[in-house]
Amino acid sequence: MTSLAVETALHEIGSKIIAKISIPKDQWEVAAQLEVMGLRDEDAQTEFGCHDIFDLARRIMWMFNEGAFPIALEKHYPSKKESFLSRWFRHYLNGLMLSLPTAVQAATMLVWGYGVWGAIELDARNSTAIALGFFASYAITGGFCQTIVRRGLFYIYQEEDYLARSTVLRIWWISVAIVAGLLIPFLLFNLLYEFLPWDMFGVMCFYYIALSILWLNFSLMYLARKSYLFVVVIAAGLLVAVFAAEVLGATVMQANGAALFIVDVASFFISAANLARRVEKRGVTRLITPPRLTILVYSTSLFFFYGALYNIFLFTDRLLAWTSAKGRGDYLPYPIWVDGPYELGMDLALLNIILLMGVVEHITQRFSEGLIANQKSVRSTSSDEFNRRYGRYHWNRMIVLAIAGIVSLLLSGLVFYLLRRFGSSEVMPGRNLSGVVRNVFWLASISYVFFMAALSNVLILLSLSRVNLVLRVVSASIVVNVIVGFVCSRSIHYSLSAVGLLAGTFVFLVLSTLVTNRVMSRLDYYYYSAY
Amino acid sequence: MTSEGTYPFALGGVSTWCDALLRGTPEIRYTLLPLMMNPHIDFKYDLPDNVRRMINVPLWGIEEPAEFIKEIPFSKLYTQKRSTPESVVAEKFAPLLSVFLNNVNRDDTDAEELGRTLLGMEQYLHSYDYNTTMKSVTVWNVFKEGMESYSRNIADRAGTHFDQELPSLFDLTESLRWLYRFLIILNAPVPKTSITHSTAAAFCGIPCIIAKLKYGTPMLLTEHGVYMREQNLFLSRFRRLLFSKRFLMNLITAISRANYWFADVVAPVCRYNTRWELAHGTAPSKIEVVYNGVDPVAFSPGPRPPGPPHVVATARIDPLKDIETFLRMAAAVRTTHPTVKYTIFGSIADPVYYKLCVALRTELDLDDIVAMGSHTDDVVSAYRASDIIALTSVSEAFPYSVIEAMACGKPVIASDVGGVREAVEGCGIIIKPRDVEGFAAAIRSLLDDDARRQSMGDCARQVVLDRFTLEKSVDGYRRLYQKLAKGRAA
Description:
Structural class of chain B: alpha/beta
Strand content of chain B: 5-15%
Oligomer: heterodimer
Largest interface: A-B, 61 and 66 residues
Mean pLDDT of chain A: 90
Largest sheet of chain B: 6 strands, parallel
């Protein structure tokens, strides 16, 4: 072959390779490509005048370094174009969907007087028993729910659906057994100390079991990643409750019982069907290597404690308020006694959580969605600038949350005012939205604004796998919540346990903000190690 | 014996070979150390009785690297976690990581130093926790510095601007996360054995390197395909994340070279593989080719069921098998031999490629004469029901499908890739890869000449009996085992 023909052939084969692989790393990568193009050492000799394939690869690599081949470098994965408004709307709706079950339950309660659990016109004895059952279920299942969600998603993300199903159902059964098993110490305690009359104790146990199963089922349902299912299930339960009470004339307990039965069964079967469908799709029919129990417990333990403490934190103030006699005639018929005005004030303040949930969801999603794209656009030597940029983002985020919080307070205040002015006698006959209700409403509203801002920090920390930091923050906040709430509710007025909530959420916000700021200042490292 | 992504959790040539070797040497006790994708993969083979111990090392799908290594009790893991502060990582691990990265990122890897560094890391992990160490800020900083220094070197060499060669933060993150996965193997307890046998010049060779340095255990290395070459091909498919790709290729090259350096014997399954091994520093004196073999009783000639002329290929549907050339060959042959049927037995390895092949089959109007995409468990019957076996691959090592077909007394027409020539030459037809007309002409010539077809098939059977039986292959490894064990005793 003439040298011109050889040069042409070399250029042709080199161009083909570069078009296929873009920038070659070295001659070995080129040699591998030449071989799978079907070229042999003898072809390298006869067609390209080279000693062998490796020699040919070296020649092509040299030509590449000399700029002989044009390269079409592909940019990083193109990101989906979506307008700010559409993204904001999508995120806000997602967040709203998560708080919608609470909103639907509250609305039904206000309009018809019934919820899936509880009712407006319940007497204080039954309200107390139900509240105790609710708190116990919430506190005890909080850790298990977190464990189910974290471990379930861990396997689902790895497309190990059979393992996900077997693991979460195993945790579910263990949780149910523990929930049921705890009835024995409850029973013994009541037997020894006569904490509650037996009829109240029975009501408490019923709600404790039924609601525990519901929370656990909800955590299974969360794995389906379809948040509208929560609304559907709760709405079905509410319909049953209203139908039973209004049409069939059932008592509150009977209506609640029917509703809880329906939501428990429906949520379990929806979750089980979702998990089964995933397994069927994957085609795996048996568990190959179950994880070591010790490691399973250890690796999920921090999430367990976080879930438990998080739930306890949210209801500490109520427990403190209802166990204090200060300002309630210095007498409680039982060691714990529900106070309607306090609960009403707290429930109305939930409006802030409903309003802010979408904002928090949007902020968290934007952080997660933007992080990878930003990482791709920053050179490693500019990591300090990258971290500073996220530091500024962090404080900007807090400003947005502060503004959203103020708007939320104004809106919820307006709703409170309208209810007080026009609706209280009709919608909530016999309720006077002043005094304790008003005070608790405002204290709780401000607390919930703090809480949601702190939650935004927490979600970002959790997305970076920093559950250990979150756990420390929540623990410190609970301590403040308990101490301040205890002192205020015992020394001034029972309803001022809400000041404990305010102090606790404030500490939660301050600490989580500081910790998040610290994480942002080394975000390059924290993102790397978040796996 | 160490494996990576193959025996006993996946089907394929390497696994077939492993199973045959283990069963063929019942007098030898084996400890298996398979690296696996994740811990939840089912066994594809029943283990023979001489496998006394399994040390599974999953790389993904785990929360704790030692989660599925049962030899490490939880109490030890916990204690290690508590005793791995940042200061220990900085003092004891960071220097090792620096040396490691330096060797990975240079063209002339110091394999000896790399191996000793791996040993140092393995010893470190006896006392300290892997997870805590690898996720420490010290490791991140050392890695970042190491990679930036590498970028500076590339820029200096290529005469480009430093900034151009720098990794993005995402590149860095991905690269270090990959390193975390691949070095999980360092957590595996390295057993004391008479010899070690790595089935690839890959990460699964690391325990063998450590055993050699720690206990003086001789190391045997078998290469079926050339790992470095296969991984280069795989990574070439990714046109983005160039820095990460470059880092992974460097890592794989360095580990392969360390395997070649520390192996006492490198035993590829064909002469062809030695080209890459020699090019990456394997001493020629270390190389001893041991060909794959088949059982000539199980794979034997049998009556051909009546039917039209039939050309068979046993190949998974994968671009490396170049099914397109097979289809074009069928289309070319049809112009002169319209009654010939074709079957490609093999699973669908690449669904996208399968679709492309199905479309091409339709385009070439071959739907009624070419069947493909189905796996058969009775491959012997498939061979017996054929007249010619055709293999159009563009990449092979020493394929079982070729020697199995030869053992069944069938003439083979195959592309000249890998070690195919070493098996087929003299008793089959070798064609330049992707040469459609060459393949078509060869098929026609054999279809038109019954006597030649028969004599070529007989010759192929005889070649297998002479050189490529399972017994000969297993004897080859037995001899190497004895030689290495004897050398150690001496």
